[in-house]
Amino acid sequence: MAAPQNLVHVTSPAHFQESLAADLQRVSLINFWAPWAEPCKQMNEVVFELAKKYPNMLALQVEAEEQQDITEDFEVNSVPTFIILRGHTLLSRIEGADAQKLTSDIATHLSAPPSSSSVTSGAAITASGAPRERTQEELAAYMQALMKKDSVVLFMKGSPDAPQCGFSRTAVGILRKEGIEFGSFDILKDESVRQGLKAINNWPTFPQFIVNGEFVGGLDVIKEMLEAKDEDGSDESEFTKVFKQGIVA
């Protein structure tokens, strides 16, 4: 039986970003799976049926061990794991072969209108098993200070000279190629900041780009701005205004 057109087998991080960014208003189901895991085989059939039932939903099949950058970015430690997003907003996370909950959550989120409050800051900044060294107020103040420490700040995995994931490496390459001076922060060194930024910026992945203390977007957003700049060839492009003139809408 032919696979539904909205069921996409992810072949690379770039393919993943492009697929997700094609429509940021739709609900996306990301299925992290492995061919050796029997529960994954069963849940792959469930995902197949959900994709057929809901043609407006995007179903992304991510083979966890083959796409390690994506797996690491979503902090997936076991398969199957399911992430449900609307655009880049986290709606639900399900670990394990729970077909009933997956089916129920998909139906619920597809019937609900888009909402900026899909993720609460309390849930997002709770790191499983991680001790807290700061109060929430202290953490919020610390993150604001980090976001304002340079005109352009890249929150990434690793350092500019030693990125720890493909997305961060690409982000550094873009900024350097465009001659953008920037500061950086390694989110792998502070789990509370890593989780807190996901909440306050309403963005579940890294890298994250900050200009003049304001969140601009993730890698796919910046790549779209850069592509528009290359096509336009104008000094009035959005990329130029944001990263070289510091104008953030």
Automatic annotation (TrEMBL):
InterPro entries assigned to the protein according to its UniProt record, in alphabetical order: Glutaredoxin (IPR002109), GRX_PICOT-like (IPR033658), Monothiol_GRX-rel (IPR004480), Thioredoxin-like_sf (IPR036249), Thioredoxin_domain (IPR013766)
Record keywords, A-Z: Iron, Iron-sulfur, Metal-binding
Domain (Thioredoxin) ranges: 1-111
GO MF annotation list: 2 iron, 2 sulfur cluster binding; disulfide oxidoreductase activity; metal ion binding
GO cellular component: cytosol; nucleus
PROSITE patterns: GLUTAREDOXIN_2, THIOREDOXIN_2
Function, as annotated: Monothiol glutaredoxin involved in the biogenesis of iron-sulfur clusters. Binds one iron-sulfur cluster per dimer. The iron-sulfur cluster is bound between subunits, and is complexed by a bound glutathione and a cysteine residue from each subunit.
Family: Belongs to the glutaredoxin family. Monothiol subfamily.
Full protein name: Glutaredoxin
Organism: Coniophora puteana (strain RWD-64-598) (Brown rot fungus)
